[in-house]
Structure formats: structure tokens, C-alpha cells
Amino acid sequence: MKLIVVTAALSLLATNAMAADLAAKPYVKAPPIVDPGYNWTGFYAGLNGGYSWGRANETALIGAPFAGAATVKQNVDGGLGGAQIGYNWQVDRKWVVGVEADIQGTGERGRSNNGLGTLRIGVFGVTASSATSTDFPWFATFRARGGFLIDPSLLLYATGGLAVGEVKFASTPAVTIQLFDGNTPIGAPVSATGPTASERQTRVGWTLGAGLEKKFTPNWSAKLEYLYVDLGTKTFFSGTGNDIDVRFRDHILRAGINYQFGGPVVAKY
């Protein structure tokens, strides 16, 4: 019995000695959870809507007996809506570049009645006029984008590139004849309206603008954007003797929402 007790005591002492000789296990802190934040790299698509203020400058060459030229400025305003698709590259913590294409349908229309000239033929006074209309039913842009991240979720950017759009122009001529006794008109004037001439043109021009885009989740963002579109000057009714040069420009303010495809990616810089 004494032998058993002594043996157990020696075994316990040996175990404690071996434990004392072992190095203490180092403390390892759990790795922190990394917040992936907002990464702008990837494909996206979205919808937009807004308003635009178009400007058409029309110059008509007037034949005899009203020889000369008449210039008319017309406001072509209206709402718009459409869709966009694009791709962004976040090149570092502060800069984002990308490409974007969009297509828009618009309600932009302008109407005006324009005096083209008055002349006296004997006892008759003859006034020529034209009722004109300019429509901008759709346009599309193909642009580069580049911007600075004010914070990880807010992008301030500039954009520019190619613009394509349809301009429709129509003109209805009219002539009013008034009988005079000296300088005193006699009776009511008589008016006659000619046939309406109409033409559509698809034009190519350029666009330039800027905007702000804010991510409110890793995949969803909202933007506010301004674009200036210039589709240059083209001649309508060319070769008919009623040639009209129309220059068209547009100022566009729109808001939109985008969805970026794919999950968040931890950027490595």
C-alpha cells in the first residue's frame, strides 16, 4: 500500500515538472472583420428621367418677291426619360473612370408663327409668314466618364462623347392680302395657307456634362446629371427653293438610379 502511494506521488511530481518546462501558449487575437465598403468597379444599368431645354435657330432663304433671309429662334422644351448602361473601373481609392451609353425618349416640341416680310403691290399689301415646328423625339449618347471620390460612396464626375438624335422640322407657309386706300386698310384681310412641308433627320453631334453619383448600398446608387448636346446645323428641304438651315442644341438635367451587378469586392491598392 505504501508503495502504491509513493508511486502515485512521484508520477504527479513528474507531470507537474513537465508542464512547467512547456512554454506558455501565445495569445492570438481574432482577425478583424473587414468591411468591404463601396467598390465602383463593374457593369451597371439603370433608368433616368428629367427635363430639357432645347434651342433651334432657323434661317430661311426667302425668294422673290420677298428676297432675303429670315432668322427665327425657337424654344424646344419638354420632359424626357430613358435608360443607361455602363462599366466603371475604380483605379484607386480616389479615382473612377468608365464608359456609358444611354437612350432617351423626349416630349421636346417648339412652335412659332413667323413673319417673313411685307411689301406693297399697288393697292394691295402682301404679308408672308410661316408656322414652324421643331420636335426632338429621341436621342442617344455614347460617353466616357471620369471622376473623383469625395468619399467612398460619393462620385463627382465629368463626362463627354458622341451624341445622336432625331430632329423633325415642319413649315406651313401663309400669305395675307390687305386692300388699301392710300395708307388706310379697306375691309378684312384675306389669308391663304400653303401645304405643310415636313422632314426628319438623324443627326450626329457631341455632348459634354457633369454629375454626382451616390451609392446608398454596395449595389444601388442614385445620380444627378447635366448634359449639353450640340447636333450642329443641317439644311431642311434642300434643293426645293425653300431651304431652311436649322441649328439644334439642348440643355438636359436628369436624375437616375443605377444597379451595379455582382457582389461587393474588396479593393487591393
Explain what the structure shows.
Mean pLDDT is 82; it is low at 1-15, 31-35 and 265-269. β5 and β6 (184-193) form a beta hairpin. 7% of the residues lie in helices and 71% in strands. The protein is rod-shaped and about 85 Å long. With 269 residues, it is mostly beta strands. An 8-stranded antiparallel beta barrel has the order 1-2-3-4-5-7-8-9.
Number of strands: 9
Which spans have pLDDT < 50 for at least 5 consecutive residues?
1-15, 31-35, 265-269
Mean of residue pLDDT?
A: 82
Radius of gyration: 37 Å
Helix-strand topology string: HEEEEEEEEE
Tell me about the largest β-sheet: 8 strands, antiparallel, barrel
SS content category: mainly beta
Number of DSSP helices? 1
Terminal CA distance: 73 Å
The shape, in one word, is: rod-shaped
Spatial sequence of strands, sheet with the most strands: 1-2-3-4-5-7-8-9
What percentage of the residues does DSSP assign to strands (E)?
A: over 45%
Indicate the percent of residues in helices.
under 10%
